[in-house]
Write a structure and sequence with these properties.
Elements (H helix, E strand, L loop, with lengths): L1 H17 L3 H4 L12 H4 L2 H21 L5 H6 L1 H26 L6 H26 L3 H15 L1 H16 L2 H11 L2 H13 L5
Helix pairs in contact: 1-4, 4-6, 6-7, 7-8, 7-10, 8-11, 9-10
The structure holds protoporphyrin IX containing FE.
Protoporphyrin IX containing FE binds next to helix 1, helix 4, helix 6, helix 7 and helix 8.
Protein backbone atom coordinates (compact mmCIF):
# COMPACT_ATOMS: atom_id res chain seq x y z
CA UNK A 1 0.00 0.00 0.00
CA UNK A 2 2.81 2.37 1.00
CA UNK A 3 4.70 1.49 -2.19
CA UNK A 4 1.62 2.06 -4.36
CA UNK A 5 1.00 5.46 -2.76
CA UNK A 6 4.64 6.43 -3.31
CA UNK A 7 4.38 5.32 -6.97
CA UNK A 8 1.26 7.47 -7.44
CA UNK A 9 3.09 10.46 -5.88
CA UNK A 10 6.04 9.91 -8.25
CA UNK A 11 3.82 9.71 -11.34
CA UNK A 12 2.01 12.95 -10.44
CA UNK A 13 5.32 14.66 -9.59
CA UNK A 14 6.79 13.69 -12.98
CA UNK A 15 3.67 14.69 -14.92
CA UNK A 16 3.08 18.07 -13.25
CA UNK A 17 6.85 18.68 -12.97
CA UNK A 18 7.01 18.48 -16.77
CA UNK A 19 3.79 20.48 -17.21
CA UNK A 20 5.55 23.91 -17.49
CA UNK A 21 6.84 22.62 -20.88
CA UNK A 22 3.43 23.53 -22.32
CA UNK A 23 4.70 27.13 -22.27
CA UNK A 24 7.22 26.09 -24.95
CA UNK A 25 4.63 24.46 -27.18
CA UNK A 26 1.37 26.37 -26.65
CA UNK A 27 0.77 29.97 -27.67
CA UNK A 28 0.81 31.95 -24.41
CA UNK A 29 -2.61 33.54 -24.80
CA UNK A 30 -4.16 30.04 -24.66
CA UNK A 31 -2.41 29.23 -21.34
CA UNK A 32 -2.83 30.63 -17.82
CA UNK A 33 -1.09 33.77 -19.10
CA UNK A 34 -4.26 34.53 -21.09
CA UNK A 35 -5.99 35.16 -17.73
CA UNK A 36 -3.58 37.96 -16.73
CA UNK A 37 -4.17 41.66 -17.44
CA UNK A 38 -2.04 43.46 -20.08
CA UNK A 39 -0.44 45.58 -17.29
CA UNK A 40 0.84 42.47 -15.51
CA UNK A 41 2.00 40.89 -18.77
CA UNK A 42 3.94 44.05 -19.60
CA UNK A 43 5.63 44.04 -16.20
CA UNK A 44 9.11 42.67 -16.98
CA UNK A 45 9.80 41.69 -13.36
CA UNK A 46 6.56 39.70 -13.21
CA UNK A 47 7.41 37.94 -16.47
CA UNK A 48 10.91 37.02 -15.23
CA UNK A 49 9.42 35.84 -11.92
CA UNK A 50 6.81 33.77 -13.76
CA UNK A 51 9.27 31.88 -15.94
CA UNK A 52 11.77 31.46 -13.08
CA UNK A 53 8.90 30.14 -10.94
CA UNK A 54 7.59 27.57 -13.38
CA UNK A 55 11.00 26.34 -14.62
CA UNK A 56 12.54 25.88 -11.16
CA UNK A 57 9.23 24.83 -9.54
CA UNK A 58 8.97 22.16 -12.25
CA UNK A 59 12.54 20.96 -11.54
CA UNK A 60 11.97 20.76 -7.77
CA UNK A 61 8.78 18.74 -8.22
CA UNK A 62 10.33 16.49 -10.88
CA UNK A 63 13.39 15.52 -8.83
CA UNK A 64 12.33 15.96 -5.18
CA UNK A 65 10.57 12.59 -4.66
CA UNK A 66 13.85 10.75 -5.41
CA UNK A 67 15.24 11.99 -2.08
CA UNK A 68 12.82 9.92 0.03
CA UNK A 69 13.39 6.23 0.74
CA UNK A 70 16.46 5.05 2.65
CA UNK A 71 17.51 2.32 0.14
CA UNK A 72 18.48 4.73 -2.63
CA UNK A 73 19.89 7.29 -0.20
CA UNK A 74 22.17 4.81 1.59
CA UNK A 75 23.43 3.32 -1.68
CA UNK A 76 23.99 6.57 -3.56
CA UNK A 77 24.67 9.23 -0.94
CA UNK A 78 26.61 11.42 -3.41
CA UNK A 79 23.69 11.46 -5.84
CA UNK A 80 21.39 12.28 -2.90
CA UNK A 81 23.61 15.30 -2.13
CA UNK A 82 23.70 16.47 -5.78
CA UNK A 83 19.93 16.15 -6.26
CA UNK A 84 19.50 17.84 -2.87
CA UNK A 85 21.57 20.86 -3.91
CA UNK A 86 19.63 21.23 -7.17
CA UNK A 87 16.34 20.84 -5.27
CA UNK A 88 17.25 23.51 -2.71
CA UNK A 89 18.48 26.04 -5.30
CA UNK A 90 15.34 25.41 -7.40
CA UNK A 91 13.02 25.88 -4.41
CA UNK A 92 14.80 29.08 -3.37
CA UNK A 93 14.40 30.60 -6.84
CA UNK A 94 10.85 29.33 -7.38
CA UNK A 95 9.57 30.26 -3.91
CA UNK A 96 10.92 33.83 -3.95
CA UNK A 97 9.35 34.37 -7.37
CA UNK A 98 6.10 32.73 -6.18
CA UNK A 99 5.91 35.11 -3.21
CA UNK A 100 6.34 38.07 -5.55
CA UNK A 101 3.73 36.69 -8.00
CA UNK A 102 1.39 36.03 -5.09
CA UNK A 103 0.79 39.79 -4.84
CA UNK A 104 -0.63 39.71 -8.39
CA UNK A 105 -2.57 36.43 -8.14
CA UNK A 106 -6.05 36.10 -9.62
CA UNK A 107 -8.93 36.07 -7.12
CA UNK A 108 -8.04 39.06 -4.89
CA UNK A 109 -6.71 39.37 -1.36
CA UNK A 110 -7.83 35.95 -0.05
CA UNK A 111 -6.07 33.95 -2.77
CA UNK A 112 -3.07 36.33 -2.68
CA UNK A 113 -2.57 35.66 1.04
CA UNK A 114 -2.99 31.88 0.49
CA UNK A 115 -0.28 31.78 -2.19
CA UNK A 116 2.07 34.17 -0.36
CA UNK A 117 1.82 32.11 2.86
CA UNK A 118 2.46 28.89 0.93
CA UNK A 119 5.49 30.46 -0.77
CA UNK A 120 6.87 31.67 2.57
CA UNK A 121 6.36 28.28 4.28
CA UNK A 122 8.00 26.57 1.28
CA UNK A 123 11.02 28.87 1.51
CA UNK A 124 11.32 28.61 5.31
CA UNK A 125 10.90 24.81 5.66
CA UNK A 126 13.45 24.20 2.88
CA UNK A 127 15.96 26.62 4.41
CA UNK A 128 15.53 25.13 7.90
CA UNK A 129 16.08 21.63 6.43
CA UNK A 130 19.41 22.82 4.98
CA UNK A 131 20.49 24.43 8.26
CA UNK A 132 19.60 21.23 10.15
CA UNK A 133 21.71 18.95 7.95
CA UNK A 134 24.62 21.39 8.09
CA UNK A 135 24.46 20.95 11.88
CA UNK A 136 24.34 17.15 11.49
CA UNK A 137 20.72 16.79 12.59
CA UNK A 138 19.56 14.09 10.16
CA UNK A 139 16.10 13.52 11.65
CA UNK A 140 15.23 17.22 11.77
CA UNK A 141 16.57 17.58 8.19
CA UNK A 142 14.26 14.79 7.02
CA UNK A 143 11.26 16.18 8.84
CA UNK A 144 11.66 19.66 7.36
CA UNK A 145 12.26 18.21 3.88
CA UNK A 146 8.98 16.30 4.25
CA UNK A 147 7.27 19.65 4.95
CA UNK A 148 9.15 21.22 2.05
CA UNK A 149 8.08 18.57 -0.45
CA UNK A 150 4.51 18.68 0.90
CA UNK A 151 4.56 22.36 -0.17
CA UNK A 152 6.18 21.54 -3.54
CA UNK A 153 3.41 18.97 -4.05
CA UNK A 154 0.81 21.76 -3.76
CA UNK A 155 1.40 22.23 -7.51
CA UNK A 156 -0.10 18.75 -7.98
CA UNK A 157 -2.91 18.96 -5.43
CA UNK A 158 -3.97 22.38 -6.81
CA UNK A 159 -4.48 20.80 -10.21
CA UNK A 160 -6.51 17.97 -8.68
CA UNK A 161 -8.65 20.11 -6.36
CA UNK A 162 -9.43 22.89 -8.84
CA UNK A 163 -11.47 20.82 -11.34
CA UNK A 164 -13.16 19.01 -8.42
CA UNK A 165 -14.17 22.33 -6.81
CA UNK A 166 -15.30 23.79 -10.12
CA UNK A 167 -17.51 20.82 -10.84
CA UNK A 168 -19.06 20.91 -7.34
CA UNK A 169 -19.61 24.67 -7.08
CA UNK A 170 -19.96 25.70 -10.77
CA UNK A 171 -18.17 28.85 -9.60
CA UNK A 172 -14.66 29.07 -11.09
CA UNK A 173 -13.74 32.35 -9.34
CA UNK A 174 -14.54 31.17 -5.83
CA UNK A 175 -13.06 27.74 -6.59
CA UNK A 176 -9.75 29.47 -7.34
CA UNK A 177 -9.89 31.41 -4.06
CA UNK A 178 -10.57 28.22 -2.09
CA UNK A 179 -7.86 26.26 -3.91
CA UNK A 180 -5.20 28.83 -2.98
CA UNK A 181 -5.56 27.40 0.56
CA UNK A 182 -6.85 23.89 -0.08
CA UNK A 183 -3.86 23.07 -2.30
CA UNK A 184 -1.44 23.16 0.65
CA UNK A 185 -3.09 23.00 4.10
CA UNK A 186 -4.01 19.26 3.86
CA UNK A 187 -0.50 18.55 2.46
CA UNK A 188 1.15 20.21 5.46
CA UNK A 189 -1.15 18.27 7.81
CA UNK A 190 -0.20 15.00 6.10
CA UNK A 191 3.49 15.94 6.51
CA UNK A 192 2.85 16.64 10.20
CA UNK A 193 1.30 13.17 10.72
CA UNK A 194 4.09 11.43 8.75
CA UNK A 195 6.65 13.12 10.99
CA UNK A 196 4.68 12.30 14.13
CA UNK A 197 4.44 8.63 13.12
CA UNK A 198 8.15 8.40 12.28
CA UNK A 199 10.04 10.43 14.87
CA UNK A 200 13.33 8.73 13.88
CA UNK A 201 15.05 8.48 10.49
CA UNK A 202 13.26 6.51 7.73
C1 LIG B 1 4.70 25.44 -3.52
C2 LIG B 1 4.70 26.71 -3.65
C3 LIG B 1 4.11 27.43 -4.84
C4 LIG B 1 3.52 28.66 -4.78
C5 LIG B 1 3.35 29.52 -3.54
C6 LIG B 1 3.09 28.99 -6.12
C7 LIG B 1 2.49 30.18 -6.47
C8 LIG B 1 2.03 30.48 -7.73
C9 LIG B 1 1.34 31.69 -8.08
C10 LIG B 1 1.05 32.85 -7.12
C11 LIG B 1 1.01 31.60 -9.38
C12 LIG B 1 0.24 32.67 -10.17
C13 LIG B 1 -1.23 32.55 -9.84
C14 LIG B 1 -2.04 33.74 -10.29
O1 LIG B 1 -1.49 34.76 -10.73
O2 LIG B 1 -3.29 33.65 -10.18
C15 LIG B 1 1.51 30.33 -9.88
C16 LIG B 1 1.37 29.87 -11.16
C17 LIG B 1 1.98 28.73 -11.64
N1 LIG B 1 2.77 27.85 -10.94
FE1 LIG B 1 3.14 27.92 -8.98
N2 LIG B 1 3.42 27.95 -6.96
C18 LIG B 1 4.07 26.98 -6.22
C19 LIG B 1 4.62 25.79 -6.70
C20 LIG B 1 4.72 25.46 -8.03
C21 LIG B 1 5.43 24.30 -8.53
C22 LIG B 1 6.20 23.28 -7.68
C23 LIG B 1 5.24 24.29 -9.87
C24 LIG B 1 5.77 23.23 -10.79
C25 LIG B 1 5.09 22.68 -11.71
C26 LIG B 1 4.42 25.45 -10.23
C27 LIG B 1 4.00 25.79 -11.49
C28 LIG B 1 3.19 26.87 -11.79
C29 LIG B 1 2.65 27.10 -13.11
C30 LIG B 1 2.89 26.26 -14.36
C31 LIG B 1 1.89 28.27 -12.99
C32 LIG B 1 1.07 28.95 -14.10
C33 LIG B 1 -0.35 28.48 -13.98
C34 LIG B 1 -0.65 27.32 -14.87
O3 LIG B 1 -0.15 27.24 -16.01
O4 LIG B 1 -1.42 26.45 -14.40
N3 LIG B 1 4.14 26.12 -9.08
N4 LIG B 1 2.12 29.68 -8.85
Amino acid sequence: MKKLLFAVICIFALLIGAYPLIYVFVEHKYTFLGSKSPEILHNLIWRIAFFAHIIFGGISLFIGWRQFGSKFRNKYIRIHRSIGRLYVVSVLISSVSAIYMGFYANGGIVSCVGFILLGAIWLITTSVAVVQISMGNVVKHQQFMIYSYACTFAAVTLRIWLPVLKSITHDPDNSYIIVAWLCWIPNVLVAYFINKKNPTTH
